[in-house]
Amino acid sequence: MKNILALGLVSLCCAACASTPTMPTATPTVDNSQTTMQITSPAFAAGAMIPVKYSCKGESVNPPLAISNVPTGTASLALIVDDPDAPSGTWTHWTVWNIAPTTVTIGENSVPMGAVQGTTSAKNNFYQGPCPPSGTHRYFFKLYALDTMLDLPATADIAALNVGISDHILASAELMGKFSSQ
């Protein structure tokens, strides 16, 4: 008798649960607009002219850069500065990798401690400022969050760097500035 009573009670509870409406659950949403990695410069706004100081007509030193919202799990950052408008094809002005993921600024005329500067299109290992032969060119500062440290020598060029970062990019950000030969 106890078993029949217990079975009846369980059946009654199950029937009650089945007919009880459940509260809808909200699907969590993620607002990536506040967490997207960014690279900016206090020296020029995105899409604006790069000051002469940072070009071949000035001191040809790298502009100050600010980095924010680096994703969790980033082991290192890599930076590529290039000019896709160069007459001979994309010209690499600066490559830097193994930048600490905690880096929030790259100061003017500086390289983050422990980072490696690679070989540019001019075959040097330092920042080469904008120097278009004619017209106005675009210069892209491309920042990559990587899930690894790169094992590349300072003699590595852009091709080697691109191979090294492929399959390791967690996030990227870009800042474009312009410079004119006039």
Task: Tell me about this structure.
This protein has 182 residues and is an alpha+beta fold. The protein has one domain (36-180): Phosphatidylethanolamine-binding Protein (Alpha-Beta Complex), CATH 3.90.280.10. The chain has helices spanning 2-19, 158-165; strands spanning 38-40, 65-68, 76-83, 91-99, 105-106, 116-117, 136-146, 169-180. Strands 6-4-3-7-8 form a five-stranded antiparallel β-sheet, covered by helices on one side. Strands 1-2-5 form a three-stranded antiparallel β-sheet, with no helix packed on it. A hairpin with a 7-residue loop joins strand 3 (76-83) and strand 4 (91-99). It is globular.
What is the CATH class? Alpha Beta
Shape: globular
* Proportion of residues in helical segments: 10-25%
Q: What would CATH call the homologous superfamily? A: PEBP-like
User: DSSP strand (E) fraction?
Assistant: 25-35%
> How many domains in all?
1
